[in-house]
Design brief:
mainly alpha
């Protein structure tokens, strides 16, 4: 999330989801009324959503919509991406997920991080 109040999201875990973009878009597309109606309506872009009978165009529109949002997330958490993936890859990433570990949850050690997030090289 890009919220800043009451406090900004702390990027405890950052993931490169580039290889998963098509799966993410397919899963989002399952939430038809949310991603093709409600969110575009609220953002004032409902007129940009392709007609319901053109699934390929809708999927392309949704991928672009998702890309804009995740690139903003990458930019917001660029320092954490660089720390996790190195200067070159961290600066190039355009698709990421960011998680904050809740203080109310069980402690998350290295084994738990690997089990939950399947981090490469961990």
């Amino acid at each position: 999330d890009l919220f800043t109040r009451p406090c900004p999201l702390r990027p405890d875990v950052v993931l490169d989801v580039t290889a998963d973009v098509e799966t993410i878009v397919a899963m989002l597309a399952c939430h038809h009324s949310q991603v093709f109606e409600w969110l575009p309506y609220g953002q004032g872009v409902l007129d940009q959503v392709p007609p319901d009978d053109d699934g390929a165009a809708r999927r392309a529109w949704l991928r672009d919509w998702f890309a804009v949002r995740t690139r903003r997330r990458c930019d917001r958490f660029r320092d954490a991406l660089v720390a996790a993936f190195g200067e070159t890859r961290g600066r190039q990433l355009e698709f990421c997920e960011v998680y904050e570990i809740s203080e109310y949850a069980a402690p998350l050690d290295a084994d738990g991080r690997q089990r939950l997030f399947a981090l490469p090289g961990a």
